[in-house]
Amino acid sequence: CICFNFSIFGIGSVQINGEEYYEIYNEDDLFEFAKIVNGCSKYSRPYPNLKANAILKNDIHVNEPYRSWQDPDSRPWISIAYDSILNRYSNPTFQNAGYKGTFDGNNHTISNLCCISEKSDNVGFFGKIGRQGTVKNLTIKNSYFSGVRGAHSAGLICAQNIGKIENCFVIMDLIDLNQFPNTKSIAGYPVRRNSGRFDVYVYRPDNTPIIPRIQN
Q1: What number of other Cβ atoms are within 10 A of residue 176's Cβ?
Q2: What are the tens digits of pLDDT across the range 139-197?
Q3: Is the Cα torsion angle 32, 34, 37, 38 positive or negative in sign?
Q4: What single-letter DSSP state applies at residue 148?
């Protein structure tokens, strides 16, 4: 791995084997990266950058100092590759498109995310991971997502996956095992056009495995 660090647009990035990766150190970086992918950042306007790569550099607890996602003053998450944003573009390249880059969690944890949407049917940390997209080495902890059909529109890592999810973990206090009728449910419940690959572990906070491994 050959790495070169530099800063672009005020956001730290690194070259890894010839590819640019945004470096995510804190909550603000995380939200800015979502905006870059979705085309809502001043650095990516007027179009989404669905091929943007990122590497997580720290564990991130959203809404410090440990504000609950149930707090009305908490900072709401906007899913990466969020269909309600992408579908507003007339260019079919962006409509119904998924994330096409690589998001490397670098074995770090993101916790306390909350996204409640009455407009989207694809809600999660990622809304949709496209065929060229990869999410790996990431833990999502104690987060809540609800879409236009409640939890049935939401996923923990992503709502809809046709790409790759590798070596990812979910840690939750409350997980309804009825939401896992088959091995594909972790990427989106219920499974909708999910033809991707994933390798996910599900645990309680005390490290008790709820589902030791989900793989296809």
Answers
A1: 9
A2: 998 887 777 655 555 778 888 888 999 999 888 765 444 444 333 334 444 334 467 88
A3: negative
A4: T
Q: What is the 3 state secondary structure string of 88-99?
A: CCCCCCCCCCCE
Burial class (CB in 10 A: 0-12, 13-18, 19+), 156: buried
Distance, in Å, from the CA atom of 180 to the CA atom of 94, rounded to the nearest integer, reads 31
* Cβ pair 24, 31 in contact under 8 A: no
Residue 3: is its pLDDT beyond 60?
no
Find the helix or strand (DSSP H, E) in which 32 lies: helix 27-38
Q: How do residues 19-45 score in pLDDT, each as one tens digit?
A: 999 999 999 999 999 999 988 877 666
Phi/psi for 114 (5° steps) reads -145, 125
Q: What is the pLDDT of residue 70?
A: 61
Q: Which pLDDT does position 92 carry in this prediction?
A: 66
Closest CA to 74 of 131, 142, 152: 142
| pTM for this model (two decimals) | 0.82
Output the pLDDT for position 110: 95
Q: What is the SS3 assignment for 158?
A: strand
Q: Which residues contact residue 62 at a Cβ distance below 8 angstroms, ignoring those fewer than 6 apart?
A: 27, 30, 69, 74, 75, 77, 110, 111, 112, 113, 114
CA pair distance 123, 64, nearest whole angstrom: 22
**Helix, strand, coil percent content, the chain, rounded in steps of 5:** 10, 40, 50
